[in-house]
Amino acid sequence: MASGEIVNRVANSALVTIDLEDYYPKGARICFDIKDWLYEGLVLREKEFRSFVNIHDWSAYKDQFIALHCTSDAIIPGWAFMLIRLQLSGIAKQVVIGDLEALETTLYQTIISDLDLNFCENKPVIIKGCSNKPVPQNAYLFLIDKLQPIAKSIMYGEACSSVPLFKK
After folding, report:
1. In terms of residue numbers, what domain contains 136?
2. How many domains does the structure of the chain reveal?
3. Are the CB atoms for 103 and 134 separated by under 8 Å?
4. What pLDDT, in 10s, does the model give residues 142-163?
5. How far apart are CA 70 and CA 35, in angstroms?
6. Share of the chain residues as helix, strand and coil, in percent rounded to the nearest 5
7. DSSP states along 43-77
8. The predicted structure's pLDDT at residue 132
9. How far apart are CA 96 and CA 107, in angstroms?
10. Is residue 100 part of a domain?
11. pLDDT in tens for each of the 168 residues of the chain?
């Protein structure tokens, strides 16, 4: 290269970069704590609980992602969460039992399961690391499971400083 031209070898390579942040679903995330619907925050009384479920304004959760949980040490029967889920049917985008990380993990599990990664076949793939959105660690494991059978190699990080993870 006598001309002194700078060549971007990364841009010219077959390297495929996947940034899980690009797949982050838009929408509000809500932790819905049922503790306040329990007698003294600890005991679920069916009649009172059903009353709270029936009078609550569920429309406030339109198109939101909901994590149902209880922050007290109460033992919550499974039907209680199912009763709430039924009320959110057709309103919320997704409902899970657990915290926000459980919610994000469930969302990414579905996203990655549905992701068409044929464009990565027999190519070196780099999974971008740092993200500004709450991408759960499990999402990276789901992605690895899907990429390993098809990718030529898998790295983690940035093109300039990646960690090799797998090579066929």
Report:
1. 9-25+107-167
2. 2
3. no
4. 999 999 999 999 999 987 788 9
5. 5
6. 40, 20, 40
7. B--HHHHHHHHHHS-GGGGTT-EEEEE--SS----
8. 86
9. 10
10. no
11. 456 665 444 444 689 999 999 999 999 999 999 999 999 999 999 999 999 999 999 999 999 999 999 999 999 999 999 999 999 999 999 999 999 999 999 999 999 999 999 999 999 999 998 778 899 999 999 999 999 999 999 999 987 788 999 999
Q: Please check whether residues 33 and 69 belong to one and the same domain.
A: yes
168: enclosing H helix or E strand: none
The total number of residues written for the chain in this structure: 168
Rounded CA gap, 152 and 39, in Å? Answer: 57
Residue 101 lies in a domain: no
Verify that 63 and 21 share a domain, yes or no: no
Asked if the structure places residue 2 within a domain, the reply is no
Q: Which residues of 94-121 are buried (b: 16+ CB within 10 A; e: fewer)?
A: bbbbeebebbbbbbbeebbeebebeebe
pTM of the model: 0.84
